[in-house]
Here is the input.
Amino acid sequence: MSPTVAELLERNRQLAATHEPSPTLSEMGKEGKSPPKILIVTCVDPRCNPAEFLGLNTGDALVFRNICGHITPVLKDIAAFDVFLGLSDIMVIHHTDCGATHFTDDFIRDGLKKRFPTNGDIDSMSFGAITDLEQSVKDDLEILRKSPLITKELAERSVGFVYDIKSGLLTAVEE
Ligand SMILES: [Zn+2]
Here is the structure.
């Protein structure tokens, strides 16, 4: 059973008792610590947790997670981070048995139109459903390469992978 919000808040109170204070950005600058340079875009699915399968420590990488791990919903954020922090690499990671392969955009649109019948914008919305994992990684890399907000250098240093939830391994997607 998933915990309740109240249970999570209780956990927070307990964890805060032994919390190590995080440095502010200016403290990090004074200590010569650099912010993360690698940005990871992956799925929100709890089974696809890059902290686990990449052994990430705090500060190793920036992680964006959304349905499937698509670029479009976070493209502006990536561009902003690159200006602010200077990114070196982007990893796009989709995963086997992704929920996005189990629903269709039409299914979500129909559900939303039932809930919000007067909203005329829903028909033109997409919700990240995919049918082919490797192709979806390639499509997201293509969005980076074609974006007028992403530098050529960063787009060229963007790589795509499929994460296998059974083996725990990443497989590179060749373009
Ligand atoms: Zn997923």
